[in-house]
Amino acid sequence: MKQEILEAVKKAKEDAKPRNFTQSIDVVINIKDLDVKKPENRIDEEVFLPQGRGKDVRIAFIADGELALQAKNAGADLVITKSDLEELGKDRKEAKRMANQYNFFVAQADMMPLVGRFLGPVLGPRKKMPKPVPASAKPDPIIDRLKNTVNVRIKNQPVIQALVGTQEMDDERIAENIETILGILDRNLEKGRNQIKSMYVKTSMGPVARVI
Questions:
Q1: pLDDT tens across 70-112, in order?
Q2: Are strands 104-108 and 131-133 parallel, antiparallel or unpaired?
Q3: Average pLDDT of the chain to the nearest whole number
Q4: Cα separations (Å) of 84 from 30, 59, 87, 91, 188?
């Protein structure tokens, strides 16, 4: 299937009209014989793309003391301390704005009860509840990994749409990222990628290019 993926990536790029920004490239996979009413058939995974996203992600780190300092030095886009959490808890509008601005949240494990209390109602519905890490964690590898991570979900419809790169990335690199997404099907579905009904590649503003 690799050749078909490469050809679809190339076509999606060629068919995309020039824009004044770099377009993302997504893979769209429709799945057959999958009852999404059953919770065990839903997927919600963070997937590390071996060739990177090609686009920046914004990461918020919820921590205090030494871990907060290390997170800031490691390049976290926002560091939220205990006092910041309490302030956000009082200002739902600001909490929502902040929740929409950042892709991933990480939190010092012993602060999770406070996160749940003050930010849970905002982050929960957006599927952005933080990953807890111990106070002794090293933020650098956590942040580096998240910068190349995408969320892959199957929820109400048997379909996956996931970012796999940008139009400036090499076709081979995008194809490798798509193969990584297909690995999720092999791990989670009874018949793996044999349950693919149809599959497309598209730029954010362009038409779809069919793979299968």
A1: 999 999 999 999 999 999 999 999 999 999 999 999 999 999 9
A2: parallel
A3: 94
A4: 42, 16, 5, 11, 39
Minimal CA–CA distance to 83: which of 104, 62, 101?
A: 62
The two tokens of residue 50 are 């071996």
Q: Domain 2-54+148-210 is of which CATH architecture? A: 2-Layer Sandwich (3.30)
Written as six digits, the tokens of 90 are: 């009082």
Residue linked to tokens 């893979």: 27
| CA dist list (Å): 196 to 20, 33, 180, 183, 189 | 34, 9, 15, 12, 10
How do beta strands 43-48 and 149-154 pair? antiparallel
- Listed by start position, the domains of the chain span 2-54+148-210, 59-146
Q: pTM score, two decimals?
A: 0.83
Which position has the token pair 């149809």?
198
In angstroms, rounded to a whole number, what is the distance separating the alpha carbons of residues 25 and 207?
A: 11
Kindly state the tokens that stand for 27: 């893979």
Q: H helices within 43-192, ranges in order? A: 65-73, 82-90, 92-101, 112-118, 120-123, 139-146, 171-188
Q: What is the largest CA-CA distance in the chain?
A: 54
Q: If one looks up domain 59-146 in CATH, what number appears?
A: 3.40.50.790
Structure tokens at 178: 């798509």
Q: Say if CB 18 and CB 199 are below 8 A apart.
A: no
Residues 139 and 83: their CA atoms lie apart, in Å, by 20
How far apart are alpha carbons 55 and 51 in whole angstroms? 11
